[in-house]
Amino acid sequence: xxIAWVMRSRRQxxxxxxxxxxxxxxxxxxxAEAGARALEEEAGRLRxxxxxxxxxxxxKTLATAVACAHGRGAQVLEELExxxxxxxxxxxxxxxxxxxxRTNRMTVLSEAGRHHEAEAEGxxxxxxxxxxxxxxxxxxxxxxxxxxxxxxxxxxxxxxxAEAxxxxxxxxxxxxxxxxxxxxxxxxxxxxxxxxxxxxEAQRFTPRWDRGxxxxxxxxxxxxxxxxxxxxEAEAAAREALNECGRFLHPxxxxxxxxxxxxxxxxxxxxxxxxxxxxxR
Length: 281
Description:
The protein is an all-alpha fold. It contains 14 helices and no strands. The longest helix has 22 residues, at about 50-70.
């Protein structure tokens, strides 16, 4: 998306950001990030310093958020931390913007295996959100933080806690957080070796497509099938998940490697042991 005009009003900026966010919802990450970077560049030419900074912050926040969803979070980690340093201590709308940036940083930390840091960050963000609830609606951001928190807990093997978060918040989730919390719930059940329940939950419904969650539910389904000894079905689910990751995620996304590892683990096993009923035949 090329932005060839000089921004003259807040309404124009808001409309541009809204359009870029819609591209994100449609899974057009590359176009959305390019548009956000163009907006950031255009902001640098604004005369008023306050306006130049504000538009730049919003544009850069959107660009880094898209990069994180695409799987390039590690590449923008320094940029996220720079934004956090710039916005820390500010009042007004920038307070919510700061918490959004910190939530994206939390995602990157968890994907890098820094689960304890991600957990600490998430709990701190939730405390700050509690202070803002009476001022502005923050429940969507709160759900994103809780999803990330469940992910960080799973990474530490604390599956019961992750299950409680996912199960308790899934009923009130909307949009992209539905798919994330749904996959998180299945993963937490797998972690407790409750494979029957995990498979039932995985098949209970199909959330609205979210490009950033590509392969996530398929991998969790494959783990459940493998845990139940249904190797062929598990392999098929893992291959499908890997193909989905390859189609929609950046090659650097950690989930791509995780899907390959899962498929290798499933295919390296021998055929599943026969059930008692099969052995009796």
